[in-house]
Write a structure and sequence with these properties.
The complex is a heterodimer of chains A (608) and B (398). Chain A has five helices and 42 strands. By secondary structure, chain A is mainly β. Chain A has a five-stranded antiparallel beta sheet with strand order 22-21-20-19-37. In chain A, strands 2-33-32-31 form a four-stranded antiparallel beta sheet. In chain A, strand 39 and strand 40 form a beta hairpin. Chain B is mainly alpha-helical and 398 residues long.
C-alpha cells in the first residue's frame, strides 16, 4: 500500500527488517517489509520467552495470577425476548466443573488443555444425556509433580424436566486418570453407546452394560497407551463394520517442577507447547473382539500436536477420512482409499496452513456445509493474533481459505478459540457458528485469561456476521472455555449447546430460536458400524437442499448429538437421501417434519 | 638574614618566567576548552545541517587534531570526535588512536552522545552501540540517550531493546507520540498487526489531527486485522479531509472493500493500481487471492507467478502458487511450489530465532554472520548485506 508515499516522501536506504524508521522524524514508513511478516512460530512460542531450570534464574520471577485468585463477576442480566440462548444447567441440576489442577500453582502445560463433553443417550430412552470429563489435580513436590485424576460426571436427562447426577450409580466415579476429551461409539455393537475418554498416560474405555452402568475395559480390549492423549474420534476406518479409534496425542511432555517459563509480562506462567516435541497420534483397529495399535503403519505423521479431529468421508469415496488440526504445526488431512495406510495430503489439499501459508495454533474443529453447495467445508479455531479459519470445499480439488472474504476476519484475533461448531441455531436453514474462547496462559499482556464466547450468523451462505450480543446472558461474560457440543436436549428441534469451562460450572445453553418446522435424523448402522459415522444426509425441500454429515470428533475434545437436525421452510413432506459409509445410497421420500426419525440402513426407518 | 642579601633579582626573574608559564597553562587550558567547544559546535553542525556536512567535518577534524597533544579527557574527546567526523571527508583515520576504556569513561555525556550520533550516521554501528551503552549506564540526558539508542539498536536489529527503550521513553514523556510510533514501526516490521494497531492508536491519540498519514497507517492496520467497522469509520473521515491520501493507499482501500464484500469496487481499485504500478506485489497478491475466491485459478496462477518472479524469496507467493495449481489438478507442479514454500518458511523461522539471539547479544558478530549467510542462502541479498554490515559493526569483520 501507499506506494507513492513510499517512493517519494521517505526514501529509505536500509533494508527491509530495520527499514521502517527515519532518523529525524520518526515517521513510520509504509514500506512492505518482506521478511518476518507473520512469522508464525511465534504464536504459541510467544507464551514463553525464557525457559531455564529455576536454579539458574537469578531473580525468581513472580508467579502469574492464577484464575482462582481472580474475582469472578457473574451477575447475569435477565433474559430478553430476542436472546438466542439461556443457560439452564444449574436450573436442571447440572452442577459440575472440570478441574485443571491449576490451583496447585505448578504452571504445567497439562493444565491448559481442558476437558470436553459427550452427548449420548446411554439409557436409550430417547432423551440425550451428558457426560463430562473430570480433569484432575496436581501436587507439587521438590523433585516431581503428582498427577491424579478426577471423576467424570454423567447426567441423566429426565425427559427434559431435570438432569440427575448418576455418576456414582453408573460406576464412573474413578479418579485414576487426568482426563481431557471424550467420544461416544458403540464399541461392542450391542446397541448401547459406550464412552472413550482420553487422558494423560491412559485411555479409558467405558463399556455401557445396558443397565445404567459402565465398566472400564481398556485393558481387556487392548486399547491402551501411556501417551498424553487428548481427544478420541471413533469411526470404522478399515471398512470392516467395527468401530475403530483415532486418538489425538498432544506432546511428548512430562511434568518437571524445575521448569520455569516467563511470559510477556515477565511472570512465571505456563510453558507453551513449542517447548516440547509433538508425538504421534494413535490408531487402534477393532477386529470385533479387541483392538490392535496400528499407529506405526497407519500412514500418520511421526509427530504432531493434535488438538482437533474430525472423522468423516470427506471425498465421498465411501471410506472414513480424518482431519487433524494441530497446535503450531501443519494440519493433516488423511485420505482413506479403503486400505490403510492413510494418504496424508493436508498441504496440497489446502488445510495445512493459514491463508498466508503460515502454521497456526489450532484447537477446535468442525465440518459442515456453510454455503449450501453440498460439499463438506471445514472450520477451526486458532490462537490469538490469528483469525479462525473457514475452508470452503472445492469439489474434488481441496479447500480454499475463505474467512476473510466472508466477514470472519478480525473478530476472533484477540482470543484463543476452543470449542466451536456449525449449527443452524436460528432455524433459517443456514449453519451459524459459535466459538468458545479462553486463554491457555494465566496472565499475559496481549490477551486475558477469561474471554468472551462468540456467535456468528450465517447470512444465506454469503457472509457471516458476529451477533454475540444476541446470544443471551451467557455471551455477555468472559470465561475460560474449552470443550463444547451441540445437542437438542429437550427434543424441541432447536440446537442447544453444552459448554465446559476451566474450573467453573459447565453451561447448558437452551436454544430459544428453534424453528417451528424441523426434521431430525438418527442413523443406525446395520451393515456398517452402528453409529454410522461417515454417512451423508441430504434433505431436499421445495427451495433447496441441506446437507449434513455424521461425524465423530469436532467441537473440541467433545462429542456432539449424533442426530442430524434440519430446520425446514414449511411443513411439506421432504425427501431425505442417506449415503452410508461404503457408498450405498438410500432415498426416503415423503418424510413429515416435526419429529425425530430413526433411519436404519437397509431401506428401513422407524418413526420414534 | 638581611634584606640586602634577599635575591630580589632572582625572584623577579623567576616571576617573569613563571607568570607566563602559569598564564600559558591557564590560557592553554582555556584554549583547549574553547577549542573543544568549537569541535563540538562543528560536530553538531554535521548532524544538524546536512548541507554543511563536509565543511563542518573538515573544521571539526582540523580543530580536534590540534588537541591530540592535550591530556586526559580533552585528548580522548578530541580523538573520538576526529574518529567520528573523519570518514565524512575521507581524512586519515590512522593519525588518531582509540582512547582506552577508562579514558572514554572520563568523556562528558553530551560529547559521547554527539560522537555516537556521528558514528551512527557514518554507519559504524558497533562503536556507536558501545558509546550509547556507556551513556545509558549513566542515567544522564536520558531522553536523548534513549532516542539515539533506539535508532542505533533498530539498525542493529535489537528490537527487544528498542521496545524496552520506547517503554522507558514513555515514562519520561507520556504525551510524546514518537515512542509509540517507534513501537508501531517495530510491530509492523514483524507483521504483528494487533500490537501495531495498539501502538498506532496511541500515537494517533497524541498526534495533531492533521497528521493524516499516520491515520492512514492506522486504517491499514485495521484492515490487516479485519476490523472493518473501525477501518471504515476512519477511512471515511480521511476521505472527507484528504481524499488524495486514500488514492495513494489503493491496496489498503481495496482490502477493506473486499472485507466488506464489495469485490467489484475492490478489483477496480486494484486494477487501477496495477496499471500504474504493475509490479506492486501486495496488489498482485490481493488480486490473486480474489481470483482464487472466484474460482479463476489460471489467472490467479499468473498473478502469483509474477509475485514470485519479482520477489523470489517470498514464501507466500510459493504457497499461493502451490495451492492454486493443486486446485486445478496440477498436483506435481503444486507440490514443487509447496516444497519451496516450506523450505523458506522453515528458514525464516530459524532466522527469526537467530534475530532474537542477535537482539539479546548486541556484541555477537558470529550470530550476525550466520544471519547474513542464511539470508543469502534463501535469496534475500539486501538482508544478507544488512547483517554483514551489522557483523562488521560489532567488530567481527570477515
Amino acid at each position: 500500500m501507499f506506494r507513492k508515499i513510499r517512493n517519494t516522501l521517505w526514501l529509505i536506504s536500509t533494508p527491509l527488517k530495520a527499514c521502517c524508521l527515519t532518523v529525524g522524524s520518526f515517521a513510520l514508513v509504509l514500506s512492505q517489509c518482506g521478511c518476518n511478516s507473520e512469522t508464525v512460530d511465534v504464536n504459541r512460542s510467544e507464551t514463553v520467552d525464557i525457559v531455564q531450570p529455576s536454579e539458574l534464574i537469578r531473580d525468581v520471577p513472580q508467579d502469574a495470577q492464577l484464575p482462582f485468585g481472580l474475582p469472578v463477576v457473574r451477575e447475569m442480566r435477565s433474559i430478553q425476548d430476542d436472546d438466542w440462548f439461556e443457560d439452564q444447567a444449574a436450573q436442571l441440576g447440572i452442577k459440575f466443573s472440570y478441574r485443571d489442577g491449576s490451583d496447585a500453582g505448578c504452571y504445567m502445560l497439562l493444565e491448559s488443555v481442558g476437558g470436553g463433553v459427550a452427548v449420548l443417550d446411554y439409557d436409550a430412552d430417547g432423551w440425550v444425556d451428558l457426560f463430562f470429563t473430570g480433569g484432575g489435580s496436581l501436587t507439587k513436590g521438590d523433585e516431581s509433580i503428582l498427577i491424579e485424576g478426577r471423576s467424570a460426571g454423567l447426567f441423566r436427562n429426565h425427559a427434559a424436566t431435570s438432569m440427575a447426577d448418576v455418576t456414582v450409580l453408573a460406576g464412573l466415579n474413578t479418579q485414576d486418570t487426568y482426563t481431557h476429551g471424550v467420544s461416544v461409539a458403540d464399541i461392542n455393537a450391542d446397541g448401547f453407546q459406550d464412552v472413550v475418554v482420553a487422558g494423560f498416560g491412559a485411555i479409558q474405555v467405558w463399556i455401557n452394560t445396558g443397565d445404567g452402568a459402565f465398566v472400564e475395559q481398556s485393558e481387556f480390549l487392548e486399547l491402551q497407551s501411556d501417551a498424553w492423549s487428548v481427544s478420541p474420534a471413533a469411526a470404522d476406518m478399515d471398512g470392516d463394520g467395527f468401530v475403530d479409534l483415532y486418538v489425538l496425542t498432544y506432546a511428548d511432555w512430562q511434568p518437571d517442577p524445575k521448569r520455569v517459563c516467563i511470559n510477556d509480562k515477565q511472570l512465571h506462567d505456563i510453558c507453551g507447547p513449542t517447548m516440547f516435541p509433538g508425538s504421534r497420534d494413535l490408531v487402534f483397529l477393532n477386529n470385533g473382539q479387541q483392538f490392535e495399535d496400528v499407529s506405526a503403519t497407519a500412514g500418520i505423521v511421526e509427530e504432531n500436536r493434535g488438538l482437533g479431529v474430525v472423522a468423516a468421508d470427506l471425498d465421498g469415496n465411501g471410506f472414513i477420512d480424518l482431519t487433524v488440526v494441530n497446535d503450531v504445526q501443519e494440519n493433516q488431512l488423511y485420505f482413506n482409499s479403503g486400505v490403510l495406510p492413510f494418504n496424508e495430503d493436508g498441504v496440497l489439499s489446502g488445510v495445512a496452513y493459514s491463508n498466508s501459508g503460515e502454521r497456526e495454533g489450532s484447537m477446535g474443529l468442525d465440518l459442515g456445509d456453510f454455503d449450501g453447495d453440498g460439499g463438506p467445508d471445514l472450520w477451526y479455531t486458532n490462537y490469538t493474533h490469528q483469525d479462525n479459519s473457514l475452508l470452503r470445499n472445492i469439489e474434488g480439488a481441496g479447500f480454499v481459505h475463505s474467512a476473510e472474504l466472508l466477514g470472519l476476519a478480525g473478530d476472533s484475533r484477540s482470543w484463543v478459540g476452543f470449542g466451536t461448531g456449525f449449527g443452524d441455531f436460528n432455524g433459517d436453514g443456514w449453519p451459524d457458528l459459535y466459538v468458545i474462547n479462553g486463554h491457555v496462559a494465566y496472565d499475559r499482556l496481549d490477551s486475558p485469561y477469561f474471554q468472551p464466547p462468540q456467535l456468528f450468523l450465517n447470512q444465506r451462505g454469503e457472509r457471516y456476521r458476529q451477533i454475540s450480543e444476541k446470544g443471551g446472558p451467557y455471551f455477555d461474560h468472559d470465561r475460560s472455555g474449552r470443550g463444547s457440543a451441540i445437542l437438542d436436549w429437550n427434543n424441541d428441534g432447536g440446537l442447544d449447546l453444552a459448554v465446559v469451562h476451566q474450573n467453573e460450572p459447565v453451561a447448558l445453553l437452551t436454544n430459544r430460536m428453534a424453528s417451528p418446522v424441523w426434521l431430525s435424523i438418527d442413523l443406525v448402522g446395520t451393515v456398517v458400524e452402528r453409529s454410522a459415522v461417515g454417512a451423508r444426509v441430504e434433505v431436499a425441500t421445495s427451495g433447496r437442499s441441506q446437507t449434513q454429515w455424521k461425524i465423530s470428533g469436532g467441537g473440541y475434545a467433545s462429542h456432539k448429538d449424533g442426530r442430524l437436525l434440519f430446520a425446514l421452510p414449511d411443513d411439506s413432506p421432504v425427501t431425505v437421501s442417506v449415503t452410508w459409509l461404503g457408498g450405498k445410497k438410500e432415498v426416503h421420500e415423503g418424510l413429515l417434519p416435526g419429529s425425530y426419525k430413526l433411519i436404519e440402513r437397509a431401506d428401513a426407518y422407524v418413526v420414534k | 638574614m638581611s634584606l640586602n642579601r634577599f635575591p630580589v633579582n632572582r625572584v623577579l626573574i623567576s616571576l617573569l618566567v613563571l607568570i607566563p608559564c602559569v598564564a600559558a597553562v591557564y590560557f592553554n587550558n582555556a584554549t583547549e576548552e574553547s577549542q573543544l567547544l568549537r569541535v563540538r559546535n562543528e560536530a553538531q553542525k554535521i548532524v544538524d545541517s546536512p548541507k554543511l556536512r563536509s565543511l563542518s567535518a573538515e573544521r571539526c577534524i582540523a580543530i580536534a587534531s590540534r588537541l591530540f597533544k592535550a591530556e586526559g579527557s580533552v585528548r580522548a574527546t578530541a580523538m573520538l570526535y576526529y574518529i567520528g567526523a573523519a570518514p565524512i571527508v575521507g581524512a586519515d583515520l590512522t593519525i588518531a588512536s582509540i582512547p582506552s576504556g577508562s579514558d572514554v569513561l572520563t568523556i562528558e555525556t553530551a560529547d559521547l552522545l554527539l560522537i555516537a550520533e556521528l558514528l551512527f550516521h557514518t554507519n559504524r554501528l558497533g562503536p556507536a552501540e558501545q558509546l550509547i551503552a556507556v551513556v545509558l549506564d549513566r542515567q544522564e540526558r536520558r531522553v536523548a540517550a534513549l532516542r539515539l539508542a533506539i535508532e542505533i539498536r533498530m539498525k542493529l536489529g535489537s528490537d527487544a531493546e528498542v521496545m524496552r527503550h520506547t517503554e522507558e521513553w514513555v515514562q519520561f514523556e507520556p504525551n510524546n507520540p514518537k515512542p509509540f510510533r517507534v513501537q508501531a514501526a517495530v510491530h509492523r516490521n514483524h507483521g504483528r498487526w494487533d500490537n501495531f494497531v495498539v501502538a498506532a492508536e496511541k500515537a494517533v491519540e497524541l498526534t495533531p489531527p492533521t497528521d493524516w498519514i499516520l491515520q492512514v497507517e492506522l486504517v491499514d492496520g485495521y484492515t490487516h486485522l479485519g476490523r472493518i467497522d473501525d477501518a471504515r469509520r476512519e477511512l471515511n473521515r480521511i476521505q472527507e479531509a484528504r481524499p488524495d491520501l486514500i488514492k495513494l493507499a489503493p491496496v489498503m482501500h481495496a482490502r477493506l472493500l473486499l472485507q466488506e464484500g464489495d469485490d467489484e469496487s475492490a478489483e477496480k481499485i486494484i486494477d487501477r493500481c496495477l496499471i500504474t504500478y504493475p509490479d506492486d506485489t501486495e496488489a498482485l497478491m490481493v488480486k490473486g487471492k480474489l481470483r482464487v475466491a472466484q474460482g479463476d485459478y489460471d489467472l490467479a496462477i499468473a498473478l502469483f507467478d509474477k509475485v514470485q518472479k519479482i520477489d523470489p524469496a517470498d514464501e507466500q507467493a510459493y504457497y499461493q502458487l502451490g495451492q492454486a495449481h493443486a486446485r486445478v489438478g496440477n498436483k506435481d507442479q503444486g507440490r514443487k511450489y509447496l516444497v519451496q514454500h516450506r523450505r523458506l518458511l522453515d528458514a525464516k523461522i530459524e532466522l527469526y530465532g537467530l534475530e532474537q539471539k542477535a537482539a539479546r547479544e548486541p556484541q555477537n558478530a558470529e550470530v550476525r554472520r550466520e544471519l547474513a549467510a542464511a539470508y543469502s542462502d534463501i535469496g534475500l541479498p539486501q538482508l544478507a548485506e544488512f547483517w554483514t554490515r551489522a557483523a562488521r559493526a560489532t567488530g567481527g569483520a570477515k
